[in-house]
């Protein structure tokens, strides 16, 4: 439990830090931090259950996309205000670093291992955000259709 709370705190702080760097409006800083911390919590839980980093990243990114969408609707901000900083804890920077380090050390098997996993994580992030944005697009289309029928 302490492990999860510590990780949530780190994810919250790092997300707020990147939101600050990306010039997120001050009113949205805490919500951006909450989106990142929630996504990281999902990542930790799914990773402990499944053992798959790629699946964990996909589920965490999907949750960040959906939470970001809810925050964007409630606060009338663009969704990017919440999902761009929220995704930062899930980006495979360490894997990319290990890929480059393995290449420099002429360890091509290690570079292939780390590089392929980093690419799969990046694809999982992109796929999850695409699904979350598609759900929002579908929701808007249904809402417009219903409002036209009521007129």
TrEMBL record:
Keywords: Cell inner membrane, Cell membrane, Membrane, Transmembrane, Transmembrane helix
Pfam families in alphabetical order: ThrE_2
Annotated ranges, domain Threonine/Serine exporter ThrE: 10-133
Family per record: Belongs to the ThrE exporter (TC 2.A.79) family.
Biological classification of the source: Bacteria, Bacillati, Bacillota, Clostridia, Peptostreptococcales
Transmembrane spans: 6-22, 52-74, 81-99, 119-138
Localisation: Cell membrane
Major subcellular location class: membrane
Name the UniProt record assigns to this protein: Uncharacterized membrane protein YjjB (DUF3815 family)
Topology versus the membrane: Multi-pass membrane protein
